[in-house]
Design the sequence.
């Protein structure tokens, strides 16, 4: 009976260690989508400009550009 409790605790700890990474990923994804949508002004942008906006948003959300 006690082995079930031990494995339940181990499984719970395994899940709880994933929570901070999930929260950080969610925050980063929200930042990326907000920054990209705020930077897009023209509907007719070429691929290079889109890539530059994505790179800027990635650096901004990682604490890079002001």
Sequence:
């Amino acid at each position: 009976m006690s082995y079930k409790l031990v494995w339940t605790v181990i499984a719970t700890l395994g899940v709880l260690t994933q929570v901070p990474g999930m929260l950080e990923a969610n925050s980063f994804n929200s930042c990326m989508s907000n920054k990209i949508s705020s930077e897009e002004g023209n509907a007719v942008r070429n691929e290079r400009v889109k890539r530059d906006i994505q790179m800027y948003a990635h650096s901004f959300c990682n604490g890079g550009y002001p």
Helices lie at 2-16, 19-39, 47-61.
